[in-house]
Amino acid sequence: MRVKEFGEEDPRRVIHSFKVGLALTMVSLFYYFKPLYDGFGVNAIWAVLTVVVVFEFSVGATLGKGLNRMVATFVAGGFGIGAHHLASLSRPTGEPILIAAFVFIIAAVVTFTRFFPKVKARYDYGFNIFILTFSLVSVSGYRDSQVWTMAHERLSTILVGSSTAVIVCVVVYPVWIGEELHNLVVTNIENLGEFLVGFGDAESNNNGKTLGEDHKSVLASKSNEENMANLARWEPGHGRFRLQHPWKQYLKIGTLARECAYKVDALSSYLNPHVQPVDEMGSRVEAACRELSTECGRVLKELALATRKMKRPKPADAMVASSRAAADNLKLVLDTSKWDRQRLVELVPIAALAAVLLEIAETTERIADAVVELSSKAHFKSADSAVSPEQPSPPPAAALPVSSGGA
Amino acid sequence: MRVKEFGEEDPRRVIHSFKVGLALTMVSLFYYFKPLYDGFGVNAIWAVLTVVVVFEFSVGATLGKGLNRMVATFVAGGFGIGAHHLASLSRPTGEPILIAAFVFIIAAVVTFTRFFPKVKARYDYGFNIFILTFSLVSVSGYRDSQVWTMAHERLSTILVGSSTAVIVCVVVYPVWIGEELHNLVVTNIENLGEFLVGFGDAESNNNGKTLGEDHKSVLASKSNEENMANLARWEPGHGRFRLQHPWKQYLKIGTLARECAYKVDALSSYLNPHVQPVDEMGSRVEAACRELSTECGRVLKELALATRKMKRPKPADAMVASSRAAADNLKLVLDTSKWDRQRLVELVPIAALAAVLLEIAETTERIADAVVELSSKAHFKSADSAVSPEQPSPPPAAALPVSSGGA
């Protein structure tokens, strides 16, 4: 029962499982058919092994592993043959000592290189395979003089295995990690927008419980996004994404979305129990706060929608005109409100709310800038209704009826 | 030059690289010496391969991979032999079809199982190796009737390789991931404490720049901590850590530390430009805020110190007595302050500061509770000076000269 639910939650899990089975069965055919078996020898089993370790959920991960494995095997095979020949010059006593020294040095140097963050992000697997193949070729060379055959067979079988994995991964219902990253970042911004719109809507607040916890997932999305961007760079152009799609820009937007989420999280701690409008002035400030929350939420939702459709949004200034007007209005209300009560303590929650919301408005503007930058770097299509960035429209004179907030 | 710096930054990277070289050279000896070679046959190369893929930076990761690999090879070898025998009953035409069907089904089912979060966290590698070994044994069985020998040799060589990796990893300057997790969580709390103490110290604020960005790293530590806790559970007892050390409690503390860090991050946006005491009342509130920040910082630093030394801290109530007194003082100041200016806007930053600090004080208390819980679950030793939890001391009558703050 729970297994079925788990599969239905994301049917791609079931599809992926069938894809792995298919690729593995396909590559096993190499072993079944005698002509191929004779060609590759007992090492044909490396092709099976390659499929199992290279096949990943997304195209980017599979391609990254496959390319790493193929290139590393090729280069390390060459090094291994070289080491074997060097060592065999001092046959017989010096050879095992030299081989052991080579293995030790290569393993230590390559392992150290793997610690460098840039290497770790993209080539970790390749460097591991490099050590592996170098050891296999140079060590087996001592026993088996057919070192060339060994290196050649290992390379061919790995080419066959990697290609099978990549082809099945791309041809049958491919999961593009770049698209996943795109959707993740869009959904994160959308969730923040939903929360802010919900927070701005006083009625739904009074009903309680309508504000979800969706923004919480944004808080911890950093390592996931970075990993996805690294993998996305292995993917060729597909669908609406070109080869040189600016994946790094998604990380920039993701970072800003997280900054916004920290503040939204602070906001959620000011929910019902705290904010109780104490008097007419309090109500005015609260209304302006809710208005600002709604407008920021709308801007974020609009940005998310444009990005999801890969349409070029309006210029950043036009996008944030409404939220900026609401922020100005809140500042004006704060500036002109008279406070005729003695006790500062009653004022703290509402003042804190205003301060956080003004910061959220600022972050919203930075997110708008980053999204506009993405749309230009990624050559999103201009929407029919959107104003092209070359001809910025003058900011709307009276953007909004600012003081008639939602409270 | 940069390589040298990178090595000096964390010398364990250099040590680890030598350890990998050592283990790999050691296991290559199996291949050199003829008696061993004759015993294991050409499959001795699996031992080399195992060392390369199993050897990880920490003991927990190496042990986890090694155990996963050994158990999965053993079980999958059995399944593979079973599948081979079943298939060979319908020799010759049915056999390849049956083998292909077995491989397909096992690969699909096991791949699907790997998606379950609990499996993924601890047994992902084992399930991968299960598919691998099952395919190798059942598929090669079709060509090579010595399927028992194949399964047996694969298991023996993998035992040799895994043991070599684990022994070298544990014996030569071991890196215990549990200790790393312990230190990471302690350092995170310490960084938050440092920041709050620094924030409370008005003079250093005026000099500017003394407040670091150390708390930023706490914000994104979630996935790292979870990964470490998963690996730590593979480690045997070592040094001051027992086998059943409550690693999950560290995740609880880590989550609270992150909540605190979100608020500290909000605090850092109220630094110099915003907070300008406007009058005598503003100065009083600011002084009380700084006092509270200092006290929260001291509590966090004390908690971090006790945890680092694995000493039992004072009971939670006694730990937070000073910060609670400072929070009460801030509330009192807010409650009694008279606000004789008209404009609300000048009040917003200081009110927001007070609100955030009161929340930080609350989170500090929850961190204290969680640390005390850890110290009891992990059987930390009682410090000489600490009061045992069975005899709680009465809270100090006059905890602090509360209003003479640092401003």
Strand order of the largest sheet of chain A: 1-2
Question: From the alpha-carbon coordinates, what is the Rg of chain A to the nearest angstrom?
Answer: 30 Å
Helical region count of chain A?
A: 17
Low-confidence spans of chain A = 385-407
Strand content of chain A: under 5%
Oligomer: homodimer
Described by strand count, sense and barrel closure, the largest sheet of chain A is: 2 strands, parallel
The helix fraction of chain A, in percent, is: over 70%
End-to-end separation of chain A: 46 Å
- Order of H and E elements of chain A: HHHHHHHHHHHHHHEHHHE
Mean pLDDT of chain A: 83
**What is the SS-derived class of chain A?**
mainly alpha
Shape of chain A: elongated
Task: Walk me through the topology.
Two copies of one chain form a homodimer.
Chain A: H1 2-9, H2 12-32, H3 34-40, H4 45-54, H5 59-88, H6 94-113, H7 117-143, H8 147-171, H9 177-200, H10 202-207, H11 214-219, H12 222-232, H13 247-268, H14 280-308, E1 311-312, H15 316-319, H16 321-336, H17 348-377, E2 381-382
Parallel strand pairs in A: 1-2
Keywords (chains A, B): Ion channel, Ion transport, Membrane, Transmembrane, Transmembrane helix, Transport
Organism (chains A, B): Linum tenue
Main location (chains A, B): membrane
